[in-house]
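Internal tracking record. Fields below are filled automatically when a chain is submitted to the structure queue. Please do not edit lines marked as system-generated. If the sequence contains nonstandard residues, flag them in the REMARKS field before resubmitting.
Queue: standard
Priority: normal
Entity type: single polypeptide chain
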Amino acid sequence: MYQFILFDLDGTIIDSEPGILASVRYALGKMGLPEPDYPVLRKFIGPPLRDSFRDYCGLSARQAEEAVRLYREWYGPKGKLDCRVYPGVPELLAALCRAGKTLALATSKPEGFAGDILRYFRLDRYFSFIGGAVLDGSRDTKIEVLRYVLARFPEAAPAETVLVGDTRFDMEGAQAAGIGGVGVLYGFGSREELEQGGALALAGTAEELGALLLANNKEAL
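SYSTEM-GENERATED OUTPUT FOLLOWS
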């Protein structure tokens, strides 16, 4: 039975697409750069921003740093709360806490922004720790964030710990950290990428996710 449950944020707890896409558009517009097509814009949700601006917009490392600065110029005051909590997630978090599970957040979003979002939606009360990236980029990949969060719970045995996320970055990060990964299908990743990333199980809704995480034994996954 999983006792320590780590959650991704974007695409797992919240639908953050409106605020993130608006912030990307703002940054590119301020730099006088063309806006990518919508399918490319959606790829910005999840990975570290610096990587996305380089990979999807062809920016140099210096240009990517400026794009990130401009992105946050919009995202901090306006974009971070332009999101919604997925249906059933508050009830899921409450049920897990009632069952005695220890919950922590592990997101590639800057930790301060993540905390602001959880507090705004009154979800912070369910988490023992809120872990995320740092603004200077010294901790922004999923594996870096996972190691940072797991270090706060030395009592968490790998066999009792799982990460819930919506993309291959989450599943691959979980594998690299030596823990299991459960994928959600209502977020931004596809079934194919989650399976290829090594997901132990997939859930289509928060209710299905709760049934998996509250199962009597790991074999149910």
